[in-house]
Amino acid sequence: MESTFLFIIEVIGTFAFAISGIRLAAYKKFDLFGAYTIGLVTAIGGGTLRDLLLDIPVFWMQTWLYLAVTGMALGIVILFRRMLISMNRMLFIFDTVGLALFVVIGIQKTIATDYPMWVAMVMGVITGSWCATFSSTWSRCSSARTFMPRPASPEDLPTGGAPCSAGTT
C-alpha cells in the first residue's frame, strides 16, 4: 500500500514538473519537440541525479509511464495554453506541487536504501531543486534553441565557446 501511494505521488510530481517545464518552453516559443524535451528533463532530472548518487536503478528507465505522463502534460499545456502561459501571470502552482512531492520521494527513497537521515534530507533537496535547475539551464542553451520554429538568422549562430555557456539567452 505504501509503495502504491509513493508511486502515485511520484507520477503526480512528474506531471506537475513536466507542465512547469513545458510552460517555460512554450513561453520561450520552443516547438513541440523542444517543449517535450524541456518538460521531460524538468520532470526526471532531479530524480535521475538522486538515483545515480544512491546507486539504484534510475526510476524512469524501469517503465515508459514517465515518458507518457510528460506527453500528457504537453497535451494539457496545448489545450489550456491561454490559461497556463502568459507574459503577465505565470502560475507557480506546478512548481510548488512538484517540489513538495519530489522532496518527499527523495527522502523516502534515500531512507529505503538505508542511508542516514542527513543524507535523506540532502537527497530530498537535490530531487526537488535540480528539476528546476535543469529546465532553466536547458531553456537558455543555444543548442536547445535549434528546436525553435523560426529560420536561423546570423544572431543565432554560435560565436565561439561552449554551446551552453553562461550568459547566453
Produce the secondary structure layout.
Layout lengths: L1 H26 L4 H23 L10 H15 L1 H4 L8 H20 L4 H24 L29
Helix pairs in contact: 1-2, 1-3, 1-5, 1-6, 2-3, 2-5, 2-6, 5-6
Concise description?
The protein contains 6 helices and no strands. With 169 residues, the protein is an all-alpha fold.
What does this protein look like?
The chain has 169 residues and is mainly α. It contains 6 helices and no strands. It has helices at residues 2-27, 32-54, 65-79, 81-84, 93-112, 117-140. α2 packs antiparallel against α6 (117-140).
Feature tags:
169 residues, mainly alpha, 6 helices, 0% strand, elongated, disordered C terminus
- Listing every helix as H and every strand as E from the N terminus to the C terminus, the arrangement reads HHHHHH
How much of the polypeptide forms β-strand, as a percent range? Answer: under 5%
Contiguous low-pLDDT stretches (5 residues minimum) are 142-154, 156-169
For the CA atoms, what is the radius of gyration?
Answer: 17 Å
Structural class: mainly alpha
**Main pleated sheet:** none
Mean pLDDT: 78
Distance between the termini: 46 Å
Number of helices: 6
Total beta strand runs:
0
The percent range for helix content is 55-70%
Based on Cα principal axes, name the global outline.
Answer: elongated
